């Protein structure tokens, strides 16, 4: 397929904000794509070269791209830099310079999807001495053969600027429409594989029957089952009756896959973290008995001085920055398994919780301080559960996770089968979409942020709150550094906002925010219709992507409960 066909669709997608038009555009493209090219088309459409779980990057930054643009177009590096200053987007710089190209190329080889994909893949595999120069050569050769529009999208793809994550709902509906399969089956297949390119290919090849055939595979991450929130132990007992209550650990969600002597470590965003945790790889080999297994659990860090859990963010930050081996000695980690999805060639997800738990206990050899099966009780006695909650808190953990004894493992679903019980203030996970410059003591850094939640129905981001409290001075500085590279020239396409921040931010970083109360129609004009009273920054949720932030529907439900508790009649209760 011609690459120009793909970029024309990408350009139209950028120009329209209608959900239905976007679905129509993508589904038509997919339906016209030859089956053997579907995976590549879907990946490129998403701005990727590899499915996300392979965690491989093209490995080219803006400086190399500028060099490649200069070489391909005959302009100097200074001219490229200057145009970048006025445009603020290297894709558009490439588009304009290719249009005005001085070295007129008479014969341009037209680019195919296959060619673009294979060059980008090759570039991502180049390493070692002289690799930068080789990468520049490959990319500039691609740009030499590009039309202006193709150049714009090649550059954006290489820089990872097309990866917005949130387009998933759209892709699900487009695959469904293109191949006449139900959106639920498409979503299920995605939850089982973490890879829309594979799902689209299967749907193209064999429709619904083929999608139904998709099963769990060791080495390919599965979307984890999630928990709803409960307000009180009483609510849990009302909903579940006698249930399992497990300690709720505060670390990061990890899925461990084992095949003989090979281990994969995936996060809840389905990223591959294997190389970051050599210590966990070793502990997993020591503790997981079967040859083939998939285990779900929480990885926590223990402060060696106090013996209590510590914020996991610090561990991730240090492992990214310093020598992993050294950090693992200073900040030891522990894994607490709470589920098994697959063992000895048998899929376990459809078995009831209690049976999975028994299997888990059989196949894990617990190693004190390293690899555990999470502690739990089974009860419907409020007093006993409260005692266990206090025990969990006294160990420095977050609370409890209540689990329905008969529930299967519902891949990728957040239902009332797992319920989290956390005392203390409520929190929301919101994505940063804009920032405001600080004043006075905070001059020179971003002093506050604009935050959004996701509307499940429209797949848009809607604003919920401004946030300027709860940060230390150091945090404000660090955050400013972090957000500088995410500043966008325009409002992100998936965001609806009335408030104009000083700068727009690419929606990538998720803040956990504590607050006192949810307000309906607050003074600050938020497109969600809700606002937060006394919002405070808690931490960055490194483990959550923008697809996983709190939804408007959750906020609505929390608001309803909050008003009920106050004893008043909630304005929403009649409609929900
Ligand atoms: P939240 O991140 O607040 O939505 O809470 C759900 C998260 O709690 C899960 O994704 C896990 O990372 C974590 N968690 C901690 N302990 C458990 C447990 N025993 N069972 C399930 N999830 C747990």
Report what the structure shows.
- The chain is of the alpha+beta class and 576 residues long.
- 40% of the residues lie in helices and 22% in strands.
- It contains 20 helices and 22 strands.
- Strands 13, 14, 15, 16, 17, 18, 19 and 22 form an eight-stranded mixed beta sheet that branches. Strands 3, 4, 5, 6, 7, 8 and 9 form a seven-stranded mixed beta sheet that branches.
- β14 (446-455) and β15 (460-467) form a beta hairpin.
- The two termini are 48 Å apart.
- Residues 568-576 have low confidence and may be disordered.
- It binds adenosine monophosphate (AMP).
- Adenosine monophosphate (AMP) binds next to β1 and β2.
Radius of gyration: 25 Å
Give the overall silhouette: globular
Please tell me the overall pLDDT: 90
Bound molecules: adenosine monophosphate
Helix share bin: 40-55%
Indicate the CATH class of the largest domain.
Alpha Beta
Strand content: 15-25%
Q: Can you tag this structure with a few keywords?
A:
alpha+beta; globular; 576 residues; binds adenosine monophosphate; DNA ligase i, domain 1; disordered C terminus; eight-stranded mixed sheet; OB fold (Dihydrolipoamide Acetyltransferase, E2P)
